[in-house]
Write a structure and sequence with these properties.
With about 120 residues, the chain is an all-alpha fold. About 75% of the residues lie in helices and about 0% in strands.
Amino acid sequence: MVIFASAHAISGWYNLTDLGDHYAVQLIRYHSVCCMLIFPLAFTIPNVLRAAGDVKYTMTVSIVSMWIFRIGLAYVIGGYMKLGVLGVWIAMTIDWAVRAVFNVIRLKGDKWEGKAVVHK
């Protein structure tokens, strides 16, 4: 919330043009909100699953989601829909949201349990 409120001050550190400052503030605020709401589910739950030995699932979800949503949608939203750099960031957060959904579903199930290798 502090970063969101300080977006203009932060962008002021970089001697940007008016348009660059506009985009910087927009991206700082967008990223701040998404980091609070989506990032924790998308990136902490996979760490739990990996620690429990469910590495293949988390890696597969990460790779597939990144190629389809982060890269694919970046071209669609940023390029074809003409949203530019904001479109790329929107695609990135859609990737986070998809990962979060898949990882929450996996965590709520029981397929990940018992995958950890115990060394004696």
